[in-house]
Amino acid sequence: MPTTESAEDDQLFVLTAVLLTPAQFPSVLGDDYPEVCAGLGLEPYAEGYGLVLGQDGTGARWTVATEDVSLVACAIAAWDCGMEYDLSPGEESIVVALPGWPLALAVATPGIPQPHDPEPQEGDRAPLAPPDAGDWGPAQRRLGADEIALQWASWRAQVEDEEVSFAEPGEERHRGVRRVLAEARGYLVDPPPPGRVRSSFAAGEARTLRVDGPGWSMVARTDDIAFVLLDDEPGQVHPVGRGPELPGLLASLDGLAARPL
């Protein structure tokens, strides 16, 4: 952070942190890892970053990018278990301190002024701000896919097998879904930027796949069906059945996917 009037003002009170790596990043910020990094003004290094969101002593919002990914990962794991963890990245690991927050937070540091963007200084970039959640668009489409991935069992329970679209030759299917499947198959020939295809743990030996592309997101389980969301169809979720094609496509995508360490 820029130098302020006192050391207390310059102190960062940490509110939360997220990982920014090819395998794990806030999906709301972009379709792939390089896109998210570009939006934050960071180089898309393969090792990734930790993003620490907090306030200084004046209440100003700051996002600190650190190269100490392991430290941030340990803090997140501890917090998820309800444990305390003092997240204090060393100065030597800090890449940049950016004004604002890229994500919406509903919490604030007690005892200091309410969150606000810091006073701009000459040459400063515009403060980071969360994507507008008011209208359907890429950010909302990706958030919808996040929700399906997190609540897979609930979404799957709403779909009867006879209601899904099967990717069978000659069968009339939704044009947008056909395009998504074709572009996803194209990734096997021409690999996409890191993070466009991500794989995470699921029940049993299955994997949860998250695949994104221009104007679309797909969430799938390697042992089950897929769900497709499109920018040009607000709020619509299209289930795609196994059929003869989907299992092989998902297995191949999982083979090139980025995976959490």
TrEMBL record:
Basic and acidic residues composition bias: residue spans: 116-125
The organism's superkingdom is given as Bacteria
The segments labelled Disordered in the record are 109-139
Record protein name field: EspG family protein
